């Protein structure tokens, strides 16, 4: 049902060890990353039903992030963010995804370094219904 508006799902503070980094000393070891994801989701109906099957579940997003954490080495935070953005937009209900990734304690002078990237449905390559359910 078109025209029913949107709602926002957030996952804040997902922390897990990832194989990430461009430098030789970062290869072969895992580094903790903190990930926040904000999804704008089409409602699909004027009122919510009290049934988890009718909404996008944040648990599905957390499980998908856990799978990515077990994945192969990635050099750039930006590339990891792209993977997360693609994963989110693979669900047709998601119209926008904002992905923030921080690498804490990467340099002694700062608390963390990171990226925030916004992905929009227009940019999505593929779409599958219920990809994050």
Automatic annotation (TrEMBL):
Listed Pfam families: FolB (PF02152)
Record's catalysed reaction(s): 7,8-dihydroneopterin = 6-hydroxymethyl-7,8-dihydropterin + glycolaldehyde
UniProt pathway: Cofactor biosynthesis; tetrahydrofolate biosynthesis; 2-amino-4-hydroxy-6-hydroxymethyl-7,8-dihydropteridine diphosphate from 7,8-dihydroneopterin triphosphate: step 3/4
Principal EC category: lyase
Molecular-function GO term, any one: dihydroneopterin aldolase activity
Gene3D superfamilies on file: 3.30.1130.10
Dihydroneopterin aldolase/epimerase domain: residues covered: 9-119
GO BP annotation list: folic acid biosynthetic process
Keyword Lyase: yes
SMART domains: FolB
Any single Gene Ontology cellular-component annotation: cytoplasm
InterPro entries: Dihydroneopterin_aldolase, FolB_dom, GTP-CH-I_C/QueF
Keywords: Folate biosynthesis, Lyase, Plasmid
Documented EC number(s): 4.1.2.25
Organism superkingdom: Bacteria
Protein family per UniProt: Belongs to the DHNA family.
PANTHER family listed in its UniProt record: DIHYDRONEOPTERIN ALDOLASE 1-RELATED
Protein name as annotated: dihydroneopterin aldolase
Lineage: Bacteria, Pseudomonadati, Pseudomonadota, Alphaproteobacteria, Rhodospirillales
């Amino acid at each position: 049902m078109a025209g029913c508006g949107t709602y926002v799902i957030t996952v804040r503070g997902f922390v897990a060890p990832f194989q990430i980094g461009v430098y030789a000393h970062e290869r072969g070891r895992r580094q903790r990353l903190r990930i926040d994801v904000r999804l704008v989701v089409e409602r699909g109906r004027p009122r919510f039903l009290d049934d988890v099957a009718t909404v996008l579940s944040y648990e599905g997003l957390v499980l998908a992030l856990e799978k990515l954490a077990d994945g192969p080495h990635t050099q750039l935070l930006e590339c990891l963010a792209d993977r997360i953005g693609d994963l989110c937009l693979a669900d047709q209900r998601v119209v926008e995804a904002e992905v923030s990734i921080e690498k804490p304690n990467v340099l002694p002078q700062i608390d963390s370094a990171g990226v925030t990237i916004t992905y929009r449905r227009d940019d999505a390559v593929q779409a599958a219904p219920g990809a994050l359910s």
